[in-house]
Amino acid sequence: MKFDPSKAVFRSAQDVKDYLAPFRAMNKTVVTTNGCFDIIHSGHIQYLTEAAQIGDILVVGVNSDATVGKLKGPERPLQNENDRVLTIASLKMVDCAFIFPEDDPRAFLEIIKPDIHVKGGDYNSDIIERETVEKNGGRIEIVSFIKGYSTTNLVKRIKTAG
Predict the structure, then answer these.
(1) Predicted TM-score (pTM) of this structure
(2) Cα(5)–Cα(70) distance, rounded to whole angstroms?
(3) Of the residues 39, 43, 81, 137, which has the fewest C-beta atoms closer than 10 A?
(4) How confident is the model at residue 83 (pLDDT cuts 50, 70, 90)?
């Protein structure tokens, strides 16, 4: 079966909410997470695999180019948001993905209202998303973190290697 981005990449959180409606009617557990995902590495794969195993449907919010620049600096992102969201959506464990323009995920979490919102082990449970997720009946889960795997470290190594 060929990958069809029209079935996995959405334009907005509202489009994702509409897509999820039949799954919610079947009492499927919706899991969300988010990130820049500039260069996909094994840390991302582990993180997304664990997130997918927590529920039935994994939705990934991908930071917009403007937000990645604010978070990571003027040389980032290395790949544009359309390439990053397509890459994430094409991963086996991801059910759908979308680009979100806000500096943090609370706005999309308010729309999607996940059952579980996942963060990597480099975070603790005291995150800005907690209140939004919990007031809508969801919970926060922290998954493992593989030390030494980050896009920032990869970029440094590439620059050092020349």
Answers:
(1) 0.90
(2) 27
(3) 137
(4) very high
Q: Which of 94, 101, 98, 104 is nearest to 15 (CA)?
A: 98
Residues of the domain holding 35: 5-161
Rounded CA gap, 68 and 78, in Å?
10
Short-list 96, 101, 95, CA closest to 81: 101
Longest dimension (CA), the chain: 53
**Confidence band of 63 (pLDDT split at 50, 70, 90):** very high
Other C-beta atoms closer than 10 Å to the C-beta of 3 total: 10
What would the two tokens of residue 13 be? 């959180």
Q: Do the beta carbons of residue 117 and residue 133 sit within 8 Å?
A: yes
What is the amino acid identity at position 59? V
Read off the DSSP letter of residue 5. Answer: G
Number of domains in the chain: 1
Decide if 9 contacts 98 (C-beta within 8 A).
yes
Distance of CA 127 to CAs 5, 70, 124, 132, Å? 31, 19, 7, 10
Is the pLDDT assigned to residue 152 strictly greater than 70? no
Instruction: Indicate which CATH number applies to the domain containing 84.
Output: 3.40.50.620
